[in-house]
Amino acid sequence: MPAVVLKKESVAVPTSSASVCFGKTSELMKEAVLIEQNWLEHAVKVMAQDVIDREDSVTWAAYHASRCDADNYCPTFTQLMPLFDGKAASA
Length: 91
Known about the structure:
The structure is a single chain. It contains two helices and no strands. It is mainly alpha-helical. The radius of gyration is 22 Å and the shape is elongated. It starts with 17 loop residues before the first helix and ends in a 25-residue tail after the last helix.
C-alpha cells in the first residue's frame, strides 16, 4: 500500500493562465539570479583574503541569514501529519 492514499476517485485540478505566470516568473528569476550573483561575488572576495574573520559569511546559508531582518518574520507553527492510510490517534 502506498504511503499516501487519495480517497477520492476523481480529482478536478483547476487550469491556470500561463501568460500571467510567465511574466512574473521572469522578473522573479532575474531578481533571484542577481541575489545569487551577489553571494558568489561576496564569497570570492572573502575567500581571496589572507585571513578570514569569524564574522565573514562564506556559505550560502550564512550569507543570506546575515542579510535577513529577523524582526520582520513571524513564528511559523508547523505540524507533521501522519502519512498512513489508517486513522491517526492524535494530530
